[in-house]
Write a structure and sequence with these properties.
The complex is a heterodimer.
Chain A: E1 4-5, E2 17-20, H1 24-34, E3 40-43, E4 60-61, H2 72-88, E5 100-104, H3 111-114, H4 119-140, E6 147-150, H5 151-157, E7 167-171, E8 175-176, H6 179-192, E9 196-198, E10 203-209, E11 212-218, E12 221-224, E13 227-230, H7 236-242, E14 253-260, H8 262-265, E15 272-275, E16 288-291, E17 297-300, E18 304-305, H9 316-329, E19 338-346, E20 355-358, E21 365-369, H10 375-393, H11 418-427, E22 434-436, E23 441-442, H12 443-450, H13 459-466, H14 479-490, E24 509-510, H15 513-524
Parallel strand pairs in A: 1-9, 2-3, 2-13, 3-9, 5-15, 13-21
Antiparallel strand pairs in A: 4-8, 5-7, 6-7, 10-11, 11-12, 14-17, 14-18, 14-19, 16-17, 20-21, 22-23
Helix pairs in contact in A: 1-6, 1-10, 2-10, 12-13, 12-14
Chain B: E1 11-14, H1 18-29, E2 35-38, E3 54-56, E4 65-66, H2 67-79, E5 84-86, E6 90-94, E7 100-104, E8 108-112, E9 116-119, E10 123-125, E11 141-143, H3 144-154, E12 156-157, E13 161-165, H4 169-180, E14 184-189, H5 199-206, E15 213-214, E16 217-223, E17 230-235, E18 248-250, E19 254-257, E20 261-263, H6 266-270, E21 295-297, H7 308-327, E22 336-340, E23 346-348, E24 351-352, E25 359-364, E26 369-378, E27 381-391, E28 397-401, H8 403-413, E29 419-426
Parallel strand pairs in B: 1-2, 1-9, 2-5, 9-21, 11-19, 13-14, 13-19, 14-15, 22-29
Antiparallel strand pairs in B: 3-4, 6-7, 7-8, 10-20, 16-17, 17-18, 22-24, 23-25, 25-28, 26-27, 26-29
Helix pairs in contact in B: 1-2, 1-7, 3-4, 4-5
The chains are: A alpha/beta, B alpha/beta.
């Protein structure tokens, strides 16, 4: 059976369910739907899944402690966190439960509270009272296993934390998972089970007939569908409006993070580490320092309101803000080992909560909107909630007997033993040819990504699948090799290879072509 | 399974660039007959094959060669020996007891357990985020060396309208190269108030082609979501902070970065070699031996040299050192530190294990200065001194102290030498 990824093929005339948006929410929902039916189509305007907000997410599976009690996102976060191990099982995705160390410092309480209190009292509050408040708050939210740590215990665990630390709370449920790899794995597993994914396909209109959703119009054709799920992230308000199912507005909020060389930062922090700032303004949970699944130290994210839904730039002020914050928490953090910086756009509504509901205005239309952090942590619970809604709208309630939850994954050279490597190389010598020196990625892995379930068409897609160019040289050595393999495998001239689709050309042409053009111009004059 | 043969050569050289070639050849000439060079690229020569401009070899060969010509001289010599060359072979790790794990397509996983190792991995270019350039992340932000490779080896143009950030030598050379290929180079921008490259490159690559070199400038924003659409540049103040009101937009499709080189010491760290935070390379002694016995290092892995000739010289010292280690064995005596003195940023070697031999010192100044004397002191007694009309930070200065020089200074000092210092002082004021 198996689904498909059809980038140039025409859209089907109809589908039982159309999901708009292939971010972490859309992909989680698609996989869940594919347990019950293979009649599901996923649409995304970008060249890859997880190509916008999801790819810039900072990878934390939050426990839910940072969210306001009583909100939907808080509830789904706590639930989602508990579901995660089972959620990723069979997908070939690494979930690390590294925990979160919440550090209480003299900055934890604002001056407005501590300013008029004697120093001794402030210290007592910070050392004895605040940790208990954190624990009590966690218990109220249903977060298990939190423990109070003394100053000494903090340094024992995390020697780089500021000596200003007064006390800490350790939350063991915090996890890390690569958000874009997870979204990709979910989409691939859905495709394996019959779902169809169309990338580079932008929804331009949604037709409603007699108060019910009728079809989705795209720049590549129209699909009739009785059920449409709006998981369009930063654009979910626009998509809802197309179906007359709106009434909310997304105000884009940017978040930037910095990434460090894992050879230097591998053991810098062992769990996520964040400074606790009570009554601190701003909608980010304040960010933290964390070890990514691959071992890179990551700092961030920031939280900057931006009017532009496409504003994935990083400003000098943001970089400064991250530095200022972490120089305090981790005074010796290895600034010179930075290798990358990236930012993404969160998609909050004015209410700052998730909107997950069947529209009352348009039958068959389901909004999954306002998803921002902890959207990654909540993803399993979001998908579960959405499938419940979809069952009510007519999606079969009996799981398919032929659903296969296991996604086959190609071998990763860097994770294999010497003997395993030898076996692979003997079979395919391209496994013995290292393309990316920094991340130890072989030619065979690049080729496999280009011909994968969701074929990597450009350099960023290869990078996200294989880590080529993600290391300390940032593609300085391997960029050309990668472009060369893409051109060869896709049968296109190397001058047509892009970084991430559209106008992101990599080469202007062959050498001498500019001189030839100049000569022609002169001759014409 | 492929039949496995463990190699146990006298010497394994990691890297087949100018440093690796020089070290292997010198070791061979010094009497080693079982040497293997492990090179990750498809050919020997390292970065030289893409350096098609001239200016190589003035010190070693007393003539002016192109990069490929310079490399070929060594490759020809290597071919006359029985040195084994493993091309397309990537070293994955070196243990502190010098066991090397490598891989290639022909043999699969390869194990090499040599008696001694020379680290000659060279350096890599600093990338955009390491110098904190804000903005978007479009295609078209490329390091100068990568651009040089695209044009000179692959025959591909990485862009048409070019802005270059950083006036290091590769950036200057690429300004000329892009111009010769018909691309438009809007200018070379340098954050410091002095150029990063050699004076001859500023004249021959910028001034001769009317390419403006704008000092005390930096790029403050990269525009364009898919491909570079332009950059914002600004003046910087004395603290290198960009001045907002001097910002201006430049239309371009490519930003070429020549913002520094970093020695590639990931393998050195695996081997347990201690790294000098100033040079970002291993601490070495006068034989280019690192802090791990039997592990030598040379060329740009030790510190970024300005001339390939010095890379070669340091590698010959390392190669001879490795041969001596294998053939004679040696216990290292209590090392004497070599300290950077006035207006000296760093000195290589950082220590001397044996004062009874010639020592080549390589050092850089911290700031430009006119009419100075560079001198090596043992305690307070001068070992060697040399006058310079002008010194610049990019330029590598050298001093060669012979055994006789050192012995004489020791005699003048009247006691055992316990430290050496290199300093640069005003020629008028020196004693």
């Amino acid at each position: 059976m198996g689904g498909s990824i059809q980038q140039s093929a025409p859209l089907p005339e109809s589908a039982g369910v159309v999901i708009i948006g292939a971010g972490i929410s859309g992909c989680s929902i698609a996989r869940e739907v594919s347990r019950y039916t293979d009649d599901v189509v996923i649409l995304d305007k970008e060249p890859d899944v997880a190509d916008e907000t999801t790819k810039a997410n900072n990878a934390e599976v939050h426990s839910g402690i940072g969210e306001k009690t009583g909100t939907l996102k808080q509830k789904l976060n706590v639930k989602g966190n508990r579901m995660y191990d089972e959620f990723v099982e069979g997908l070939g995705i690494v979930l690390k439960r590294q925990g979160l160390l919440i550090v209480i410092t003299p900055r934890t309480l604002p001056d407005s509270i501590t300013g008029w209190l004697p120093k001794r009292v402030v210290h007592w509050l910070l050392e004895k009272v605040v940790p208990r408040l954190v624990i009590r708050n966690g218990k109220k939210k249903g977060i298990p296993g939190q423990t109070i740590l003394s100053r000494e215990e903090i340094f024992e665990r995390e020697p780089h934390v500021t000596r200003n630390a007064i006390a800490g709370v350790f939350d063991p449920t915090y996890g890390l998972v690569s958000p874009y790899k997870l979204a990709m794995a979910l989409a691939e597993n859905a495709i394996q089970n019959g779902a169809k994914l169309f990338l580079d396909t932008e929804v331009t209109d949604i037709k409603v007939e007699d108060g019910a959703v009728a079809s989705v119009v795209t720049d590549r054709g129209e699909i009739r569908a009785p059920i449409v799920v709006n998981a369009a992230g930063v654009f979910s308000d626009k998509v809802a409006d197309m179906a007359g199912a709106g009434g909310f507005e997304i105000h884009p909020r940017k978040g930037a993070s910095l990434l460090f060389d894992r050879d230097i930062t591998a053991d810098y922090v062992h769990s996520s580490v964040a400074e606790f700032r009570m009554f601190h303004k701003g909608h980010s949970k304040g960010g933290g320092a964390m070890p990514t699944a691959e071992g890179n130290l990551q700092l961030g994210p920031t939280a900057i309101e931006t009017g532009d839904r496409y504003d994935t730039s990083i400003s000098a002020e943001e970089i400064e803000e991250i530095f200022e914050r972490f120089y305090y928490l981790l005074p010796d953090f290895p600034r010179s080992a930075i290798i990358s910086a990236f930012s993404g756009i969160r998609a909050p509504t004015a209410e700052e909560d998730f909107i997950i509901e069947a529209s009352e205005k348009t039958r068959g239309f389901v909004n999954v909107a306002g998803i921002q952090s902890p959207g990654l942590a909540a993803a399993p619970a979001v998908a579960e909630m959405v499938i419940g809604i979809l069952h009510g709208l007519g999606v079969p309630t009996t799981p398919r007997a032929d659903f296969d939850p296991v996604r086959p994954t190609p071998p990763k050279f860097s994770e294999l033993t010497e003997d395993e490597r030898d076996v692979l190389i003997e079979d395919d010598p391209a496994f013995g040819h290292i393309i990316c020196r920094c991340e130890t990625v072989t030619e065979a892995e690049v080729v496999s990504a280009i011909h994968g379930t969701i074929p990597a068409k450009n350099m960023d897609m290869v990078k996200r699948r294989t880590r080529v160019g993600m290391g300390r040289c940032q593609g300085g050595f391997c960029g050309f090799r990668c472009a060369e393999i893409i051109a060869r495998e896709r049968g296109i001239p190397i001058t047509e290879v892009t970084k991430d689709g559209g106008d992101s050309w990599v080469f202007a042409g062959e050498t001498k072509h500019l001189l030839a053009a100049e000569a022609t111009d002169e001759a014409e004059q | 399974m492929i039949a496995k043969k463990k190699r146990t050569p006298q010497l394994a050289v990691i890297g087949g660039g100018p440093a690796g070639l020089g070290a292997a050849l010198a070791a061979s000439q010094a009497g080693l007959d079982d040497i293997v060079i492990v090179e990750r690229d498809i050919e020997l020569g390292g970065i030289l094959p893409q350096c098609i401009h001239d200016g190589f070899g003035s010190k070693v060969f007393k003539e002016v060669l192109t990069g490929p010509q310079y490399a070929q001289r060594y490759i020809d010599e290597i071919e006359k020996t029985n040195i084994e060359v493993l091309l397309n072979t990537m070293v994955l790790g070196i243990s502190p007891d010098r066991a090397i794990t490598a891989v290639n397509s022909r043999e699969g996983m390869i194990r090499i357990e040599p008696e001694t190792v020379v680290l000659a991995m060279g350096c890599r270019e600093r990338s955009r985020h390491q110098v904190f350039i804000p903005g978007y992340r479009p295609a078209g932000v490329i390091t100068a060396g990568a651009a040089q490779r695209d044009i000179n080896i692959e025959g591909l143009m990485p862009g048409r309208k070019i802005v270059i950030l950083g006036s290091g030598d590769i950036g200057l050379i690429m300004a000329r190269r892009f111009t010769l290929e018909g691309a438009h180079v809007e200018g070379v921008y340098e954050i410091m108030d002095h150029p990063g490259g050699l004076p001859r490159n500023i004249v021959q690559c910028c001034y001769d082609y009317d390419i403006p070199l704008r000092l005390s400038h930096t790029v403050t924003f990269i525009h364009g979501k898919k491909r570079v659409e332009g950059v914002t540049v600004a003046h910087v103040d004395e603290d290198l902070k960009a001045l907002k009101d001097t910002e201006r937009f430049i239309d371009c499709d490519t930003l070429v970065l020549s913002v520094g080189l970093i020695p590639e010491n990931e393998l050195s760290r695996h081997a347990g070699v201690e790294i000098d935070p100033v040079t970002a390379g291993p601490f070495v002694d006068e034989r280019m031996e690192t802090t791990v016995d039997g592990v030598f290092a040379c060329g740009n892995v030790v510190n970024v040299f300005d001339l390939v000739d010095y890379v070669t010289r340091s590698s010959e010292v390392a190669g001879r050192g490795a041969a001596e280690y294998v053939l004679q064995g040696r216990k290292r005596e209590a090392p004497v530190k070599v300290l950077p003195g006035r207006n000296v940023k760093y000195v290589v070697p950082q220590f001397v294990s044996d004062l009874g031999r010639d020592v080549d010192f390589y050092f850089r100044v911290e700031h430009p200065e006119k009419a100075v004397t560079a001198r090596v002191l043992a305690g307070t007694s001068p070992v060697k001194s040399k006058k310079h009309k002008m010194v610049h930070p990019p330029e590598m200065l050298t001093a060669s102290a012979t055994v006789a020089d050192i012995a004489e200074a020791a005699k003048a000092e009247g006691r055992k030498i316990d430290s050496l210092m290199v300093e640069v002082v005003d020629s008028g004021k020196q004693a």
